[in-house]
Amino acid sequence: MPDEPTPERTPETSSVPETMRAARYGRYGGPEVLGVRTVPVPRPGRNEVLVRVHASGVNAVDTLIRSGRMRPVTGFRFPKGIGADFAGEVVARGPGVGVGVGGPDVGARVWGAFFAMWGAATAEYVVAKAREVAPAPEAIGLAEAAALPTVGMIALQGLRTVRARPGRTALVIGAAGGVGTAVLQLARARGLSVTAVTSAANAAQSTRLGAERTVDYATDEPASLGREFDVIVDCHGSGLRAYRQLLRPGGRMVTLAPRGAAAAFTTAVLPGPFVRVQTLRRRRDDLAELAALVNGGELRPVIERTYALDEIADAHRAADTGHASGKRLIRMAGPA
Ligand SMILES: NC(=O)c1ccc[n+]([C@@H]2O[C@H](COP(=O)([O-])OP(=O)(O)OC[C@H]3O[C@@H](n4cnc5c(N)ncnc54)[C@H](OP(=O)(O)O)[C@@H]3O)[C@@H](O)[C@H]2O)c1
Which of 26, 70, 195, 258 stands 20 to 30 A from 183 (CA)? Predict the structure, then answer.
């Protein structure tokens, strides 16, 4: 039975079921706190759309939120939903959508990323602001597309920060995970030559994605590499001071990982090359750029495994390991 208040029905939502299955948790803790509940389908408000979700991506930050490490921000109201990334089709529009400013039509294929702290994208339906969603790429299925919004946007933004330009040399640290596989592909698409830092198990994957060279973080000390990189994009967050020594004069380094933020801030004040911490800006323009890159064959989701909604705890167990060969997806039952 539904355990959340039932929203009022309107003609716009009348063809949508009353209830849906959604990931929920009732306290902070390990992956076992996650479960699936039957809850009312939310109703789109003014300038909002209702999206039938095909899949939702699991991001590293979701596991931090679930564990309670972000509790000063996420608070103590339960049950909570989880998940930032989604892709699906618009099934209803709230008042104001399509009036003046336009907005997606019913039936439009869309994708988007919520602010992760309040995200509840791992559900059969989500309500999003019409300006938060963007047309999903046509070249791939909606279930696959859910692997890209957050990691694709942070990868684009990080590469802009380090001024990735054709002909430059890049070191991508943590190149095998969700963010790293996006950074690696986008750096190659921009004409950089890439050295990928991964575990030995993931080296072949990085080579397939276009890395010219792979470095095993378990056995190869950063100092064994030369001072030969114009840009360094860190997707893991350890060893930043040592990696920074590998920048050529005028080179730039960015960390996308919260684990690397403190080291990056302290490193940035020391004399030496440019170092920055990149935080995510959720931008429709970036979603549009990502869709164009996917449609142009320059970016593909790299998916380690797709889980059923009932397997969400298993997906988080895998994410908690800190190792990955691409993204974990949660696929909703129903959509083809
Ligand atoms: N700033 C933002 O808004 C934003 C947005 C998205 C993600 N992030 C952050 O970006 C980071 C990566 O996210 P993700 O989704 O890519 O995580 P992920 O899918 O879990 O990937 C993490 C990767 O780190 C690699 N790794 C583990 N130990 C390493 C080491 N000692 N040296 C180098 N690499 C190592 C792993 O490689 P192996 O599997 O080969 O061991 C794995 O592929 C996380 O800290 C996440 O919070 C930030």
Answer: 70
